[in-house]
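I am still getting used to backbone structure tokens and would like to learn alongside you. Please make up or recall a protein chain and show it to me in full. Would you write everything just below, so we can both look at the same thing?
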Amino acid sequence: MFQATADKVKEVLESESTGHDYYHAERVLNNALHIQATEGQGDRYVIGVSSLIHDVCRPWEKETGKSHFGEEALGRIRVMLESINENEEVIERVLEVVKWHDIYDWDNPRAKSVELQIVQDADNLDAIGALGIARTFAFGGALGLNMYVPGENLDFDKAFVDDPGHRTSTIAHFYEKLLKLKENMNTQTGKALGEIRQKRMTDFLDDFFEEWNGS
């Protein structure tokens, strides 16, 4: 059902090294289809295509410094979907999901389609837990970020804003975004799965600081 989209995404993300590679897209697809089946809501096809293509402009973002879900990126995604003869209604609905999937409106929630809720939860699940830890360090390394800076701010009281021009250290990113994802899942299935992955992150951070401090 999703092979044409998968092939296009795999082609574009072949050399992606920030943790947003094709295998991430595939895991998000699997998460999303599981959530959709469990919740019993949403257009399965739109959810699947959106899951696969949501990060396809990440290499372009790294190259240009422009947002991977901004208007210019959405135009590029449209061209990709048109190249595999996707129909216009699906393209419009997919672009709407991609446009909002990385918007974290925890302070002032907006109305979200069921498809957006599911894809966002599926993506956020892959950002936490053991895989999330691995991907976060891959992302930091690929962008040349500090792993950790002793004494840096780890107290972030506002919703995360994805901005290619502003990056924290890898460890700070856990506090800036990742540790907040569990509480802000959209679906009951996302919340339940998030509980398990949250503990894996908090255990890791406890161990990290114990070893960093020479305990």
The longest helix spans residues 188-212.
